[in-house]
Amino acid sequence: MATSYSELSGEFIKVSSPADHVLLVELSRGPVNAFHVPFWKEYGQVFLRLSQLPDVRAIVLASSIAKAFSAGLDFSGLDNMNTYDKDPGRRALQIRAEVLTFQEAIAAPEKCLCPVIAAVHGIAFGLSIDIILACDVRYAATDSVFSIKEVDVGLAADIGTLARLPKLAGNQSMVHELAYTARNFTAADGKKMGLISKVVEGSRNEVVKAAIETAKVIASKSPIAVIGTKKVLLHARDHSVQENQEYVANWNSAMLQSSDLSDSFAAAIARKKATYPPLFKSAAKL
Q: What are the residue boundaries of the structural domains of the chain, listed by start?
């Protein structure tokens, strides 16, 4: 029976457990999940807490709003710049610090120990792209509509899209076109360029169900093996082949000593499903 994790929910984020070792994290700020400062700060804090839980092995990120994943930034709630110093140099340093803090919060799924699957439906504009690119796997319903929206409001996207998308997408021309024009694109377009790995027929319920099924498969594997795989894949994205080979050698010099390895072998020989202990004895206190 899945454990309840509702106590980890906040004002704008809902947390539940649809299956053993699997969490569903839902964006829940009506009417369209527009992000203001308290929302994105809570988002980062929730993922930080989830990463400390001893027996969570996969997370699905979705929206509880029927018509949207997220409309992006709520510009009406971003008036804190009025409180910054009037001197341009000092003001720039304050803005820089705020942007870096924002980046850190939105990158929280990437830094989470276990894999995070984004389940997207409806509108997914602007910050939505930053959010899902920090996830490990991205599914989209056929009703999804994406846009790298920042140029339409006078910005270069600065929370992760321009850093991650060129490294993930196989069509660099399309990346540039979408970033320059801010035009809408579909889930099929997203799959074509490499942003999305699976397009699910339907809307919210269908894509969330598909993501949970994949999360359940991941959660059945050795958590030590899955965490190591995530760490090595992220390292490979940002380093050379030789550097990554050395990194995984160092990583596995420790992790090959885990009981998960012998447990997996024993289960395979006995033709039984392996069971694995929690990563920690109890949740870390933050």
A: 6-219, 223-270
pLDDT in tens, 30-53: 999 999 999 999 999 999 999 889
At 32 the three-state DSSP class reads: coil
Amino acid at position 97, single letter:
A
The DSSP secondary structure of 206-223, one letter per residue, reads HHHHHHHHHHHHHHTS-H
Q: What is the CATH number of domain 223-270?
A: 1.10.12.10
Residue holding tokens 């989470």? 112
Indicate the residue type of 178: L
Classify 132 as helix, strand or coil: helix
Q: How far is CA 243 from CA 48, 163, 222, 238, 251, in A?
A: 28, 20, 25, 10, 12
For residue 114, how many other CB atoms are within 10 A of its CB? 24
> 33 and 27 in contact (C-beta within 8 Å)?
yes
> Which value, in Å, is the radius of gyration of the alpha carbons in the chain?
20
Domain 6-219 sits in CATH at: 3.90.226.10
- Identify which of 193, 189, 185 has the alpha carbon closest to the alpha carbon of residue 167: 193
What is the arithmetic mean of pLDDT over 270-276? 90
Residue 40, classified by CB atoms within 10 Å of its CB into exposed (0-12), middle (13-18) or buried (19+), is: buried
Amino acid in position 104: E
Q: Kindly report, residue by residue over 161-207, the tens digit of the pLDDT.
A: 999 999 999 999 999 999 999 999 999 999 999 999 999 999 999 99
CA-based end-to-end distance of the chain? 27
- 39: tokens are 């929302």
Residue 69 and residue 121 in contact, taking contact as beta carbons nearer than 8 Å: yes
Concatenated DSSP letters of 49-85: HHTT-TT--EEEEEESSTTEEE-EE-GGG--GGGGS-
The CA-CA-CA angle for residues 180, 184, 186, to 5°, reads 125
CB 2 within 8 A of CB 22: yes
